[in-house]
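Appendix B, Record 12. Input sequence as logged:
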Amino acid sequence: MGILKTSAFVLISFFCATPFIAAETVKTTKSHGLSLAGPLKYGPDFKHLEYANPDAPKGGTLRLSAIGGFDNLNPFISRGQSANGIALTFQTLMTQPNDDPSTEYALVAQSVEVAEDLSFAIFNLNPKARFHDGSPITSEDLIFSFNMAKEKGRPVFRYYYANVEKAEALSPTRIKFHFTGPPNRELPQIVGQLMPILSKKHFETREFDETTLTPILGAGPYRVKEFEANRYIVYERVKDYWGADLPINKGRYNFDEIRFDFYRDTTVLLEAFKAGEYDYRAENSAKNWATGYDFPALKNGLVIKEEIPSKSPAGQQGYAFNLRKEKFKDPVLREAMTYAFDFEWLNKNIFYDQYIRTNSFFFNSVMAAKGEPSAEELKILEPYRDQLPARVFGPAYTPPVTDGSGRDRTPLRTAKRLLKEGGWTIKSGKLINPKTGKPLEIEFLMYDQNSLRIVGPFIKNLQKLGITSTTRIVDTAQYTERLRNYDFDIVTTVFGQSVSPGNEQREYWGSAAAQTPGGRNLIGIQNPVVDALIENLIAAPDYESLIPATRALDRVLTWNFYLIPQFTAAYDRLAYWNKFGKTNIYPSEGNDIMAWWIDPEKEKALREGLKKIKNAKN
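Logged structural output:
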């Protein structure tokens, strides 16, 4: 989960755990980590992560990039735009490695004790844990952090902590979190990995919920060194970082400095990489990957391109309807519009066949609905049959498919038939809303000019249905603000998922989240059946029962056509200047750049190679 991640994890079992009887006589299990399903990958005596090199040298600068800007160094509140990388300055009780997706391991907490009845969890703090000013991290700091996050933090904290009743200091290094409601196996991990650890003393003279450009006192491996708002920020490695030798950290955080430079335009961003202005790039454009890297440094081996198979859940990316707008409340319209999105033509002509179509909100995961519903799924869904589309009880949703020619009329004929059956009519070439009698007009909100080449063919097909569609491109700050206030018709968005969906589903699809500014229910879903299925999912007693609970929710979400599914890549695309050292192991959940280091010999060869290219030009 982490401060900046969107997924959450469910506690199922412990590895090498030992029974412990707490004072309240409730039996607990004590461990160095929490696991989703089966044993932890790393035992209590592990030395370092498999993909990290414990002997990696420290030094050098990692130069990264970001789109947009920032005006805030507090990432835990909804106001302002926080700086990329700021999470490096903070710590959490526990943390998740990139090669064990269903787990989290001790960080600020040395160990955790979880009640057998899931009524509480106790975290035992590492006595060495310190803030950057040298002051110890105590239970009082954690109580303050919990209260601030829940009362004044981003909406995500309120939804995650809805069933965390209170935090209680048992001693300066021992803290107990009390849970309410039905047993929820996710809550110990939510507390362990989501909650930021803040200094109570630091905020004695500061307001937590105000934007700030004064760095907040943290306890992480880096601190803010210098910055210019909206232009760049530099983090320096904390030389006496208290957690440097923890097994979870050994061989990581090797760069002396990490710098983010901010760009306004994605085209300029790529050119800046090719010019050597920054070092490492995760490419998200199929066109760029296919055609944008034809430059001398790549041909000479000074830049490396890698494709790494993706093993992590992809979630769902798509054109999200804003159901707060009356015009999108009709599911017939939403379904009809899916037939105007010609993925097969886009993939062939624009994406260089690099993408696959998503058909689930839990794509690339065992949680995705497949085929006919199982007996377990039907048992969950049956009480709501009268409130659900009949198709929920049949085969799993599959998006429309075209022949890829760009001239396949069959999907649009289907769309027209659906609209006609739903009472929509065409007058003077315009699609007329049967409730308002007005022509349907739609605006696609975006911040990237490159998105026009994707939405353009879609808009042309919508026009054939009589739908007038326009695009509006705004800068990232305006885009963020408009999303925060739900001021849009349709946006492209991604709903990321973990291997174990849980409490975060409330914020994605829950009715209570639909009207909360800054929340993640962008679509504005307010469906009592969805609410009930979310609570059923959260209350799943084990991993085996979580699967049908999630698949049942997936069927309801997909067959209500809340968004138009887009696509995802089957692999991650990385490009980087050849100056890094790294192990030959890529973790299953995506690359961890913090486990790389600067290789002095490669860096020297890179400088010499660049000189040769420059001399050849002259």
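Residues 58 and 254 are 5 Å apart (CA to CA).
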